[in-house]
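Appendix C: a fully annotated inverse folding record. The material below is reproduced so that readers can follow the format used throughout the book. The structure is listed first as C-alpha cells, followed by the designed sequence.
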C-alpha cells in the first residue's frame, strides 16, 4: 500500500492531504482565501500566490503531524503542476520538489483536471473505467470519456464561459458576493424556475459544446429591468443551466457510445439541483451515477494525492525539472470548439 502527500495551490485554495492507496484519507487541510479576494469580486493572482507561499509550509507540517507520519513514511509527493494561476502553481510544485528531493521520494506532477477527473474513484471503489465525466468548475466545463488513468477523450468544452464562472457572475449581478455558486443555489430554492424567460445557448446544436456567456448577459438584462426578484432570476438561471447540461450530455452520449456510468466532478458538482438532474438523466439512459462527496468536489488536495496514488501504482513519476503549466489540456488531441476563444 502506498501513502502519498498531495499539495493543491492552483487557484484560491491552499490544500494539503495524505492519502493511502486503499482510499483512506489520513489527514487533510484546506485554507480558503475567499476573504482576501472577496473585496475584488474575483481571484487576484498575485494575492493568491502570496497567500499560498505564506500558508503552505506550516500546513504540510500540520498534516504530517495529524496523520502521525513523517515525510520518510510517504511513498511519493504529488502536487498540482497546472493548469491554473501560474504563481500559485509554482509555489506548490516547487515545495513538492523540495520535499521530494529532501526525502528522496518520487515527485508526481499532477494535472489539476486529472485530480477532478479521478476524484470520484477515491470516493467510490466500485467505479471502474470507462466513464462519462461532466467536469464543471470555475475554469472548466467539459464532457470527457475517461478511459483510464491518463486516457481522456474530450467530447465537449465551453466556447466561452465555464459554468462555475456563470454562477459567479450571476451572483455578482445579484449582489450575492463571491464565490457565488453556493449563494445562487441557496437563493434559487426560494424562486420560481419558470418566472424569467432566459436563453438556453446552443440547445439542440449538433456538437455537444457549451456556451454560457449569453445566459449571463440575459441575467444582467433581467436584473436591470427591475421586473423580477433576485430569487426568481437565480432559480431561472439555474433551470436554464441545468437544461443546457442535460441537452449537451445527451449529444455527447451519442458520440461516446454507450457508457456504464455518468460521473460529475469539479466545484459545480457540489450543486444539489444539478446532481439530482444528472442522476435522473443517468437513470433514463440506463447508466449508474456517481458524484464525489461535496468536500471532494471543490478544490482540495485529497484528489491530487489520489491522482498521485493512481499514477504511482502504474509505475509513473515525474522529473524534478518538470515545469509548471498555466495551460494543460487533459486531451491534447481534442480539436478546438468552433467559435471558442483562447481558453483551454
Ligand atoms: O473546482 P473549483 O473549486 O475550482 C476550480 O478549479 O475552478 O470550482 C469552483 C467553482 C466556483 O465557480 C464556484 O462558484 C462553483 O465552483 N461552485 C458552485 C457550487 N459550489 C461551488 N456552483 C454552483 N453550485 C454550488 N453549490
Ligand atoms: Zn478545480
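Designed amino acids, in order:
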Amino acid at each position: 500500500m502506498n501513502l502519498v502527500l498531495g499539495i493543491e495551490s492552483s487557484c484560491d485554495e491552499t490544500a494539503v492531504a495524505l492519502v493511502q492507496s486503499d482510499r483512506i484519507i489520513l489527514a487533510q487541510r484546506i485554507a480558503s482565501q475567499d476573504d482576501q479576494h472577496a473585496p475584488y469580486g474575483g481571484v487576484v493572482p498575485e494575492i493568491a500566490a502570496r497567500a499560498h507561499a505564506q500558508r503552505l509550509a506550516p500546513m504540510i507540517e500540520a498534516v504530517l503531524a495529524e496523520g502521525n507520519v513523517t515525510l520518510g513514511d510517504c511513498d511519493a509527493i504529488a502536487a498540482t503542476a497546472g493548469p491554473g494561476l501560474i504563481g500559485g502553481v509554482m509555489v506548490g510544485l516547487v515545495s513538492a520538489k523540495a520535499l521530494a528531493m529532501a526525502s528522496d521520494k518520487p515527485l508526481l506532477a499532477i494535472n489539476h483536471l486529472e485530480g477532478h477527473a479521478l476524484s470520484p474513484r477515491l470516493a467510490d471503489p466500485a467505479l471502474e473505467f470507462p466513464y462519462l465525466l461532466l467536469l464543471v468548475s470555475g475554469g472548466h466545463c467539459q464532457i470527457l470519456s475517461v478511459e483510464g488513468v491518463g486516457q481522456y477523450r474530450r467530447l465537449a468544452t465551453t466556447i466561452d464561459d465555464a459554468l462555475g464562472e456563470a454562477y459567479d457572475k450571476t451572483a455578482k449581478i445579484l449582489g450575492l458576493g463571491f464565490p457565488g455558486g453556493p449563494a445562487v443555489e441557496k437563493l434559487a430554492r426560494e424562486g420560481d424556475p419558470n418566472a424569467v424567460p432566459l436563453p438556453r445557448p446552443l440547445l439542440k446544436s449538433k456538437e455537444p459544446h457549451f456556451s454560457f456567456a449569453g445566459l449571463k448577459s440575459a441575467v444582467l438584462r433581467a436584473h436591470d429591468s427591475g421586473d423580477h426578484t433576485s430569487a426568481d432570476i437565480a432559480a431561472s438561471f439555474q433551470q436554464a443551466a441545468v437544461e443546457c447540461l442535460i441537452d449537451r450530455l445527451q449529444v455527447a452520449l451519442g458520440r461516446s457510445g454507450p457508457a456504464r456510468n455518468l460521473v460529475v466532478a469539479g466545484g459545480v458538482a457540489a450543486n444539489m439541483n444539478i446532481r439530482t438532474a444528472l442522476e435522473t438523466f443517468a437513470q433514463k439512459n440506463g447508466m449508474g451515477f456517481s458524484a464525489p462527496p461535496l468536500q471532494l468536489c471543490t478544490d482540495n488536495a485529497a484528489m491530487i494525492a489520489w491522482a498521485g496514488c493512481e499514477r504511482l501504482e502504474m509505475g509513473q513519476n515525474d522529473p524534478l525539472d518538470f515545469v509548471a503549466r498555466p495551460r494543460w489540456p487533459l486531451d491534447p488531441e481534442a480539436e478546438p470548439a468552433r467559435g471558442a476563444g483562447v481558453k483551454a
